[in-house]
Amino acid sequence: DFRVFSNGGRTPALEVASEQIQVSSCRFNLDTHMLPYLSRVMMCEAPIYPEVERNGKLITLSSGGFLVNFTTASADFEYVSSNSSQTLVKGLRPNLFRAGTDNDGVKQLETQFDDQTKPLGQWLSLGLDCVTLENVKREVSSKVLCADVFPERDTEKECPSVETEATIISWPGKVTYDGIAMAQPLKSQNQEHIQRKLGSWKQTVTMNSDGALYVENTITLDGSLVKDLPRWGVEFAMPRSMSHNSFLARGPHENYADRHMSAHIGVYEENVPECPSTYVVPQEQGNRMGLNWLFISEPRLDENSLSEKATLSAKKNIDDVVSGKQGLLLLPTSTHPEFSVSRCTDTQLFRARHINELNPSKDSIFVRIDAAQRGLGTGSCGPQTLPEYQINDDTEGNTCKLSFWIKPIGFGDK
Questions:
Q1: What is the pTM of this model?
Q2: Nearest CA to 337 among 283, 262, 400?
Q3: In what order do the strands lie in the sheet with 159-170?
Q4: Residue 166, helix vs strand vs coil
Q5: Per-position DSSP letters for 91-143, written without gaps between them
C-alpha cells in the first residue's frame, strides 16, 4: 500500500494518488497473517472444559461464562452471556436475498417483474425473500478444533459441537409489500403461498473452553432451480447497543465485486447508522469486501460522536481496537467474505419506497456475512452485471461453505 501526498503548505497534506499492490494472492495466507491471533482465539488456556446439557427439547453448550441454547424444534440458536443474561447472537441462518438495486430491477415498475434481463423479479418468484428451515435435525457431537492449523497443540482434546441439518424452503409471495409495484403480480398469483424446496442447510457450532464459538455453515442449493443468486451467506441479530464497528477490510465506502478497486484494505471504524440513508430509494447498501476481522462493540463515550460513515482508524492493530471494550470479534477462517451491518433487514429495505418509510429495528442490529454477493452492474440504464460477477448455479458445485469464529471480548474474560 503506498500513497502520494502534496504538501504545498497545506495542513493536512493533500493526497493526490494512491495504490495497493497485490504481492502474491488476493488473500492473506492463514499461517502468515491471521495465525498469531487465531492461536490466541482458538487455543485458550482456560482449565474448564465446555459442558453439554440436555433438558427436553433444549440443548445447551456452556463454558467461560457463556452458553449457547439450541432447541430441537427450530434451526435457530442463542448465544448468551450467562453473567449478564444478555443475548449476544440470535438466529444465525442462511440469507439469500438482497433489497434489489435499481440495476437489479426498479421495484416501482411492475412491467419489470417478468423482464428476463432484470433478476429482481426472478428472486421474488423464487421466494428468496422468505426462506425458512424445515425438517430440522440436531445432533450432539465433538470436534478437534483446528488441529490442521496447530498440529502441535491440543490435538487430542475434542470440544463439544451441535450439528444441525435442515431443508431450505422458500415461500414466494408470503411476505407482502404494499405499494411496491413489482411485488403485486406475485401477490395475486400466490394466494395459497406455494412453497419451494431450494436445497439443504448444515451448521456445526463448536464451543471452546473460554466460550468462543467456531461456526461452520454449508448451503447446498438445487442448481436446476436456483440461478443467478443475489447473495450466498448468513445473517444474525445482535443487541442494538452493539452499534460500533471496527474492521479490517476494503473501505471506507461500500464496495462490491465489480466496484471495489477504489476501496483500499485498511482498519476502519464507524457507528451503525440509525437509519440507512445512502439512497433516497432504499435498496442494497453498505457492503464491504475482503473481510479479515470485524469487531462489533458498544461505543465508548468518545466514540458516540464518530461519523456514521466509516473512516480510517487510528488504531492499527487488533489489540488496540479491542482494548477496554465489550463486544464480539468475528474472525473468518477459510475465505475473506463480504459483510454489512444495518438496523434494517433486506425485506425492510425493499418494503420502503422512500427513506421516510423505513422502520429500523428498535431492539437489534443485523449482521450479514456473505461468501459471495452478486455484483451491481449497470442494468438500470446499461448492461446487466457481467457473468464473472454473478453467482450462478454452477458455483462450487451448488455448495457454499462459510466458517468463522465468534469471540467475546470484555465480558469478564482475560
A1: 0.88
A2: 400
A3: 131-143, 159-170, 196-207, 213-221, 399-409, 327-332, 293-297, 244-251, 264-271, 311-312
A4: strand
A5: EEEEE------TTT--TT-GGGTT-TT-HHHHHHHHTTTSEEEEEEEEEEEEE
d(CA 402, CA 93): 12
Per the rule left: phi > 0, alpha: psi between -120 and 50, beta: everything else, 301 is alpha
Q: What does each C-alpha distance from 329 to 90, 95, 245 come to in angstroms?
A: 15, 21, 10
Instruction: Give every CB contact of residue 131 below 8 A, 6+ residues apart in sequence.
Output: 93, 94, 95, 96, 97, 168, 169, 170, 171, 198
SS3 state of residue 39: helix
Q: What cell does 361 get?
A: 429495528
Q: Where would I find the beta strands (DSSP E) of 208-243? A: 213-221, 231-239
CA distance 176 to 44: 48
User: What is the residue whose three cell numbers read 428451515?
Assistant: 133
The tens-digit pLDDT sequence of the chain (414 residues) is 555 555 555 555 555 555 555 544 443 344 344 555 555 555 555 556 789 999 989 999 999 899 999 998 889 899 999 888 899 999 999 999 999 999 999 999 999 999 988 999 999 999 999 999 999 999 999 888 755 444 444 445 788 999 999 999 999 999 999 999 999 888 766 556 689 999 999 999 999 888 999 999 999 998 888 788 999 999 999 999 999 999 999 999 999 999 999 999 999 999 998 888 888 999 999 999 999 999 999 987 766 666 678 888 888 778 888 888 999 999 998 789 999 999 999 999 999 999 999 999 999 999 999 999 999 998 788 889 999 999 875 545 589 999 999 999 988 654
Q: In whole angstroms, what is the distance from residue 347 CA to residue 328 CA?
A: 25
> Taking the mean position of all CA atoms in its chain, how far away is CA 135?
24
